[in-house]
Write a structure and sequence with these properties.
two-stranded parallel ribbon; flat; alpha+beta; 98 residues
């Protein structure tokens, strides 16, 4: 697998134990991918594994799961005037091809 589902489940269990029932809790999986990820087979397999994992945990109510890559995060930051310059600098440095 290209996604460490066992590690994500450990985090899920820890969050579920740490926070009382009824509290809205999110487990966010944040990952990097290169600009040319579409050309790299491992990233396609990671996307497939991630999609499968998300479909298997979508009904979990104690801890909700959300996945996003850094580019999605930085794009959302660019909409905030306080974060826009920081997001641009991060994108300039880390949005690269491999």
């Amino acid at each position: 697998m290209h996604l460490d589902a066992a590690q994500l489940i450990k985090h899920y269990l820890g969050l579920r134990k740490q926070f009382p029932a009824g509290k809205k809790v999110w487990l966010v999986y944040l990952y990097w991918k290169p600009v040319n990820f579409i050309d790299i087979a491992e990233y396609s397999r990671h996307a497939e594994d991630l999609e499968k994992f998300q479909s298997e945990v979508k009904e979990a109510e104690a801890v909700r799961f959300m996945a996003m890559d850094y580019l999605e995060l930085w794009n959302s930051w660019e909409k905030d005037k306080n974060m826009a310059e920081h997001a641009k600098l991060l994108k300039d440095r880390y949005c690269v091809e491999i």
